[in-house]
Amino acid sequence: MCKNPLMKSVHCFDGQWYTTDLGRSLVAAERERLTHLLPGLYGPIALQVSRNRYPKMLDASEALSHVYVDDQFDNVDGKVAVSATAEALPFDAKSIGVVLLPHVLEFSEDPHQVLREANRVLVPEGHLVLLGFNPMSLWGLRNLVAGGDEYPWNGRYYRLSRVKDWLQLLGFEISLGAMAYYRPPASSEKLNKRFMFLDNIGDRWWPLMAAVYMLIARKCEIGITPITPSWKKKQQLAPGLAEPVTKNS
Fold this sequence. Notes:
8-stranded mixed sheet, Rossmann fold, alpha/beta, single chain, globular
């Protein structure tokens, strides 16, 4: 058993969780949101950096190449894949157009280093797409009371406002925010389906109570003038996507 005196056993991953009923339903909701978030984000290379064999989610990206990094890869599924950690990416500085970080900060002993590495490899005006578990949700409550080594309740869930502050300190500009999955963390498939209606009304009635928040942040560098490709599509706000997120006071 792994132990860490400062955090809640962040390395005790269960790679099979995403194949459970609850894991599959969460991934399906996140994938649906990403189909609206990823298109239009320009970059020659889109990189997904994940842990715990998180499913590959770059299919909607319009980048020319898709690359996947995970610390537990055992099957590349015919895709370009690298076994590495989010804290030490094996890529040159300013070489990646889009970086997707799905549920990485919660399970890292150094989330600041994860963000610094993402910032390092991104090209100027490149985009970081970040997914995080929301501590202000029923999932956050379960994380608070469950404890132990069971994934995903063994992570440290960070408030949205805190993550935004970290990004802005690194020079990122938050351009878009979205929430996903309003159902409670019910392990029973029957109960999970019974609560599906919450996903249809959550954005309107309790938008800050979703299980997952998503952020798109643009890397800004002083003196750099962005050049928009002629083929780049204008990004449209789909149902469930919020207006650009501003810094909380």
